[in-house]
Amino acid sequence: xxxxxxxxxxxxxxxxxxSNIHLINHQLPKGNAEDFAVQGKSGMIIGYIENxxxxxxxxxxxxxxxxxxxxxxxxxxxxFYLLCRxxxxxxxxxxxxxxxxxxSKMQIAEDEWAVQCRNESCHYRTYPVICPSIIVAVRxxxxxxLANHVRHKGGIYTTIAGFVEVGETFEQAVAREVFEETGIxxxxxxxxxxxxxxxxxxxxxxxxxxxxxxxICLQEEEIHDAKWFAYNQPLPELPPKGTIAxxxxxxxxxxxxxxxxxxx
Length: 264
What we know:
Layout: E1 3-4, E2 10-14, E3 16-17, E4 20-22, E5 30-32, E6 42-49, E7 52-57, E8 66-68, H1 77-95, E9 106-108, E10 115-117, E11 125-126, E12 131-140, E13 143-149, E14 160-163, H2 170-182, E15 185-197, E16 202-213, E17 223-230, H3 244-263
Parallel strand pairs: 2-7, 12-16
Antiparallel strand pairs: 1-6, 2-5, 3-4, 4-8, 6-7, 9-10, 10-11, 12-13, 12-14, 13-17, 15-16
């Protein structure tokens, strides 16, 4: 699906460097290939914006200005997810240049998002790696469990999250991660939604759960602090708008409010 970009090709242009994207005045470049010196480079159309093609350009070693994809969470979901797609594809192409079966050089497939071994006797095909990760908000009556992770020490309090292990259901991963990180056992685990998370290749699968038993006991290498917060009391700094974490927190706070009302 990769092709040489012609001088007159036009549309929106997505240039990536890791999980960063090239922006001009906070906007994706739009226009002819020549306007942005990408003619002759390899690229592919990965979607459409305003009925214009969105071109993913091979990752370049250049001096353009690149900005964190995380900072674009305010964008409409459809557009943000397209950008995630591009970032994840370039990460995949850059990290799968040799065959994991025979060691030969890989090439990008022509019929789908994949890479295929050039060795005539192998032709092993590999697809973009997507790592499923659960994320869960836990409620105890009219309180929500929020954790300050070591990587956010002193800052954001958020939900519990972690990668799904081999031979494990999403629900089992939810129960395991909550117990490992906080010592809390949960019940009534239910699916809410998901979010592509291109840092570099995760799929966040969101859940709500209710407290069953236990007292907070921190996994200190992962969690700096964790507390129960009442829905009607001041809350700590929360994840930014656009994250599935904040959506789960907001839904749980609404359930906390309903629970408090039913008690009265």
